[in-house]
Specification:
The structure is a homotetramer. Chain A has about 350 residues and is of the alpha/beta class. Chain A has 2 domains: about 1-120 and about 285-305, NAD(P)-binding Rossmann-like Domain (Rossmann fold, 3-Layer(aba) Sandwich), CATH 3.40.50.720; about 125-275, Dihydrodipicolinate Reductase, domain 2. The first copy, chain A, has 9 helices and 15 strands. The radius of gyration of chain A is 22 Å and the shape is globular. The first copy, chain A, starts with a strand and ends in a 20-residue tail after the last strand. Chains in contact: A-B, A-C, A-D, B-C, B-D, C-D. At the A-B interface, strand 7, strand 8, strand 9, strand 10 and strand 12 of A face strand 7, strand 8, strand 9, strand 10 and strand 12 of B. Strand 14 of chain A pairs antiparallel with strand 14 of chain C.
Chain lengths: ~350, ~350, ~350, ~350
């Protein structure tokens, strides 16, 4: 099969490179409106086919899957066309501009029985896989909180705020690790230099006693990328800035004992060893690429399928609503359309 | 003059030790209801006078100032008695249980022309003093955000939540550093093991484009105590867990230029050197003790006077309201009593 | 029993404090020629007896053990007098100025059946105890190297070089951890500002394929205190500057396989998890004090007995010889006196 | 001009990649005896010419410069042929197997007026350039010591010891930074698993009061790459494992004052700020490639010319001698051949 990559901006060339070395991929077609980008990719990877015509991509019967790596606002219209053309679809994160678009993509992929995946690269890292293993096996116990910090002197985006830029990474990790699903979101932030927030704090609420918080910031002088997951049995730190020892597992927890006579709880700490599992350093993106091909071939569900894409988009949309409302708590249930939802009119997309 | 320290739990003995070696303090009287604690302090510091009678302290004409280091709920009634007795007053943080109590203490101290101070120890550290200097001189430019993390596998308190336990440190630092005053507070958190929250995120809102956020957590496997202050000219990191190089000043900022032709802003980063000022390691508590004595003698205002204590308490009270209301934004203006406020009836406190 | 501490300079007061809270010690006598120091100790610890007369200490029948915390050059003459007086002896590190003195002290303690101990405080830390456990159980396998760095912007000493000042800590740890005994020493260094070296590198050679190296430096802008121990099965890092996680155990090693056909060895790495054992933070000095009292009572050997003191002094003496000889390897066997050694004439020490 | 790269093992492909994008280089010829390696390089960089014939490289008039990236033992014979063919020569570090070979290469390059350079990549890093600037301007004052640690769980080499594998990096940095030239070398080490040392400590002695030390180790569980340079005015730490802040400059030093009355020196510390200069992250190898082309064009000397290659090789050879002699100090003056040295017979090299 062939894979097409549409959009050769910052991330597209990485996708091209990875699909070129993915098993069972016989050719990669790169598509962009800008001829200069096509020349550049051709120079680096002479075996790549290039085209400026998205329609040609849709018409090419050898292309089984299409990867959309264009700006977020175009994910939905382009994605719809890919599915209409009967091709499997992989979309750069975030999957869509809002919940409605994301649900529509899911419906259509389901109706056509096509694979719909999102490039949540981080869930394919060995570090996150190791955390998933610890949580799935029950080693961590009940999860008490999920705390994420992703801050840096990052590039200001001209079409989105810091939440939509950075939080999808951590939201997809949370969605992958935590079985419970969020019920509400609150978010505060400030926009100092444009209409888009550059510092924000996003909180995800659950029905159970669990809280998740995401600090995203384009104005931090230091680069921090750390997730803490606290459980009743173990606690885990994932520091992506560490060259080695990214994951540290702390045998620390809380023991609660009921004291008979006084109807009082005794809360005590347990402090044991820390260990840092050895983690291979394979590239996450190549695992993601391989899974896309595998899902196309077998129809099996992906660990970052359309549903996970929808989950992330729903939180992002709620965050935008909350931030405008001064941090008010926004119920996620309000965002989904009632069952039997109408078909959206697909905007025409001039290629 | 003599100084009395009331309450010899965890922090009281440190206050005794410091006042013993403060210039112009001729004697320290330690007061606690528990004789065992008095014996212990006597064993360590034989020159200390001890008493179980708070009234004796109030009656002793040689005692010019009284330090209240008892549980928070007793700060107000004990403090009122100290002021009634015409003595200067230093209260452990937080100053009171709510805004009303704090304002009443201020009123009474003002009426009697007595010094009212709060033990916000951190504002006396060399690190915070250095940050104050940078901000006051204008080196940092406009402050864009204040981000604080104070997390640890801390002791569960049986009478308060993690916000009242840990946030006063960082709120007092913010109050000291930032000239603008907060207008509202929102706060989310979870209580896993008792009625008191053990993980919380507190946001302080300002009229200007400035946001302050405080992460406090008793359930973190790692100990983090870090404040980031981002300004338009410089950014500062204060990491209290570093043995040296606690303060790092980054010559990093944002340049915004108006581009004529397109009515568009161009946002650009500036990345320069980092430097870490050499900071002396004198004990903050001894500076605080010395300032109390100095304020008593001269009547000059303290850098952690009653007003700062009130500012901190107001945010804490608003945080409690917000957390119960699911993170709703709480206006601080609602908490203060209208001018010409009535005198509160002082609860009787049986010593 | 009573314990006397002779010499109240930098370290003596710590010894006084610890022996005051040691079980079975009924009183501590502090002895120094300088009355001002005695006043200071009395102020801090009013229950301490003080005297300027070393002879009084020797004559006091209630004093069972004497601690010598005076400058190194006086350790031997004072120690001899203590043993002559029939009292047990604990000497600050390093035990003596040279091998001859150290051996003489051992002989005399042995002849009188008195306890002779050295204050090698570090071997009583939980971190070193944990390393000892790992090595003793065979978990580490064969030790391949021992690498120590102890550097800092330290105080220049006026009577000794950086080797005698800092290396005894690490030499005593090595002596405690490594069963094999050194056969030779080589050492290089430079004295920039006085006759005493301020930067030095000391190498300890063994009969087996094992090397130990010690970097000591008074001129380092950063404070490093790290020991690496590499074994065939596990490798250990001990970083004393870490607040927690001082000890890290790496499941990393080398597998050597003989390849049949080619009479060639295949050397391969094994890279597994790292773990950091939880370590209590009890004060090492109080364990050392307790052991001295225990040894006095029971006659059992100490983990830092006179022999370990001799081992350390022998390496230090060899280092001084080597450094003067441009780093030449110095055999340790040459330093010891032949069996049946003559009694040394004891220099008169005017107290 | 064209550049030929001979030897496509671990490092050769990096050289090919860099010369491909170097200004004024019109083509790159890759030469290796193994056709498979040529296929691989062709696949990655289709525009590269390939050949298995070293003689063809020598005969190609369009090739102005040849890069030798083969095993060390072949550097000399291949290098001689390159110079004989009248081509400019860049050799991978270390330049040669011994001082005699290195000097012969220098003589021949000089006689033919050809550029002779060594790929000491580290001297082209922004970090080392910044250190050079500080030292050259006199900011650091007199250099007191140079301490280097380069340890890792590295690959065992089958034809050389850890010194020849790792120390050339740090020796070339020292040679670049320190104006004084070494007079002697001493070295100790252990070979645990083969005839080649896997742990070693190399000391470089100077006529002045300056000492340089290099710890190289293939058996360390942690990766450390740090250089400390202590000066009378400033001290510098270069930590290559830091993502940012690789260079830290400490305003710390030693003040020595003569005290009149007592003919005694007073040695005092000065502790000031630390700062970390912002350093660009350009690739050092591309600067090295550009300089080779520049030297070919202009005849100007390189910062890593043949003389620096010789300086490094001389220390390495002396280290090997010293290590066999138990760490004995080896005078570097003995290694150089007397002036008017005979021509070496060039071993025939079968391509």
């Amino acid at each position: 099969m062939k894979i097409a990559v549409v959009g050769l901006g910052y991330w597209g060339p990485n996708l091209v490179r990875n699909f070129l070395s993915t098993d069972q991929v016989e050719g990669v077609v790169a598509c962009d409106l800008a001829p200069r980008r096509l020349e550049n990719i051709k120079k680096k990877f002479p075996m790549v086919e290039t085209t400026t015509s998205f329609d040609d991509v849709l018409r090419d019967d050898n292309i089984a899957g299409v990867v959309i790596a264009t700006p977020v606002s175009t994910h939905f219209p382009l994605g719809v066309k890919v599915l209409e053309a009967g091709k499997h679809l992989l979309i750069e994160k975030p999957m869509a501009s809002n919940t409605a678009e994301a649900e529509e993509l899911l419906d259509r992929a389901y109706a056509k029985m096509l694979t719909l995946m999102v490039d949540h690269t981080f869930v394919y890292t060995s570090a996150v896989q190791k955390m998933k293993e610890l949580i799935a096996k029950g080693d961590i116990g009940d999860v008490l909180y999920f705390d994420s910090v992703r801050i840096n002197l990052g590039l200001f985006q001209h079409d989105t705020n810091v939440i939509w830029d950075l939080a999808p990474h951590d939201l997809s990790i949370m969605d992958y690790l935590i079985e419970d699903k969020p019920i509400a979101v609150s978010c505060v932030g400030v926009n100092h230099f444009s209409e888009f927030e550059d510092v924000a704090y996003l909180t995800v609420h659950f029905a159970e006693k669990l809280i998740a918080q995401f600090h995203v910031n384009w104005l931090s002088p230091v680069k921090v990328r750390r997730i803490l997951v606290g459980g009743t049995k173990l606690m885990v730190s994932y520091d992506d800035m560490e060259a080695s020892e990214k994951i540290k597992v702390y045998d620390r927890g809380v023991d609660v004992r009921d004291e008979d006579s006084v109807y009082k709880k005794l809360v005590q700490y347990r402090t044991g060893n820390m260990y840092s599992p050895n983690i291979d350093s394979g590239e996450a993106l190549s695992r993601m690429s391989a899974e896309f091909v595998d899902c196309i071939n077998t129809g099996k569900p992906s660990i970052s399928d359309g549903q996970t894409g929808l989950n992330v988009v729903k939180v992002l949309e709620a965050a935008n609503i909350s931030i405008k409302a001064g941090g008010r708590r926004v119920d996620l249930s309000h965002l989904s359309r009632p069952h039997g939802r109408a078909l959206y009119s697909i905007p025409t997309f001039e290629n």
